[in-house]
Amino acid sequence: MQLSNNGFKIIKNFEGLRLDAYRDVAGVWTIGYGSTRYHDGKPVKPGDQLASDAQADALFANTLGQYEDAVNQCVKVPLTQNQFDALVSFTYNEGAGALRESTLLVKLNEKNYAEAAAHFLAWDKITDPKTGQKVICDTLVLRRREESQLFMLPDAHH
C-alpha cells in the first residue's frame, strides 16, 4: 500500500514546514516536513537550508518510502487506507523500530483492531533533552488521538 493524499496532508500538518534546520522538541536537528536525514542518509545539521517548498516536498516524498515499507513489511493483516495512513503517520514520527517493537503492532497482527487503535495513545511522550526524563508532549497527545481516530474511521466509498 501507499500513503493517500489525505495521509500526506495529515503528516505535513503535524510536522509543519521549516526550510531552515531546527531542533525538534526532542532536540534532534530537523528540516522540511520533519526530516532528520537527507536522500543520501546524511543527518540534518545546524545552518542547513532548503531552497524551496518543492525541495521540501521532494525530501518528504523520498523520506516517506522507508516508513511505507516498514508498515507494509510489519503488518500481516488486511488494512484499510485510513488504517495504513494512520500507521505511516505514526511510524514517520516514532520510527520503524518503534513500530516493530510496539504492542500496537502485536495487537494489530492478532487482528485486534480496536486494541491496536487504543495503543496509539500510549506514544505521547518525548525524552526531555535537558533532563533525560520521559515527559508527556501535548502535540503528541493530539497527534496520537487523531491517528487513533483515523485508524478506526471507515474508508469513504466513492
- Please state the structural category: mainly alpha
Mean pLDDT: 94
Portion in strands: 5-15%
Q: What summary fits the major beta sheet?
A: 2 strands, antiparallel
Structural summary, described in words:
- The protein is mainly alpha-helical and 158 residues long.
- 51% of the residues lie in helices and 10% in strands.
- It contains seven helices and four strands, in the order αββαααααββα.
- It has helices at 5-15, 53-74, 81-94, 96-100, 103-109, 113-119, 138-152; strands spanning 18-23, 29-32, 125-127, 134-136.
- The strands form two sheets. Strands 1-2 form a two-stranded antiparallel ribbon. A two-stranded antiparallel ribbon has the order 3-4.
- A hairpin with a 5-residue loop joins β1 and β2 (29-32).
- The longest helix has 22 residues, at 53-74.
Write the layout of secondary structure elements.
Elements (H helix, E strand, L loop, with lengths): L4 H11 L2 E6 L5 E4 L20 H22 L6 H14 L1 H5 L2 H7 L3 H7 L5 E3 L6 E3 L1 H15 L6
Antiparallel strand pairs: 1-2, 3-4
Helix pairs in contact: 1-3, 2-3, 3-7, 5-6, 6-7
In short:
The protein is mostly helical.
Core attributes:
158 residues; two-stranded antiparallel sheet; 4 strands; 51% helix; 10% strand
